[in-house]
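Section 3.1: Structural characterization of target chains.
Under the original work plan, the team committed to producing a structural model for every single-chain target entering the pipeline before any wet-lab resources were allocated. The record below documents one such target. The sequence was received from the expression subgroup and is listed exactly as submitted; it comprises 149 residues.
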Amino acid sequence: MRVLIIAAVAAMAACASSGGAQEAGEGANPFPVERGSALPPPAPNGGRGTTPPEGAAAGGLDFGQWRGADPASYAPAFQERVRARYANQEISYIRADLEANGFACEQSGRLECRIEIMERQCAIDWYVVVERAGAQPIAGHDVMCLGAR
């Protein structure tokens, strides 16, 4: 038993006297230190768009009565309004108009525009995708709530 205690004390003394730890400043730090480079916290709505109104937005796109609507029936109606509005329009016009209506758009081969918000613990998403010039827009609306059963 005494031998075990003496061995444990000797092992701790060896570790404490630089047996395994590097001193500060020795060797290269595997984690780069970039102080002040963190991204700012996200905006309360996720930073991806402002809450659209029920009915027509400032840019003229009709979002309809989306609060409390069943996504299974609202999404096809929203797509029909989007398709009617952008029928036979150029992609550049569609992008400018969607951005005027609060969408955030990205274009890399195809146009993808989206509004993402959080409201009453629900993530609500509107999207419009145009695959190529002359194609009908694909539009949709999704709702995902926290704590849903």
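The chain is about 30% helix and 20% strand.
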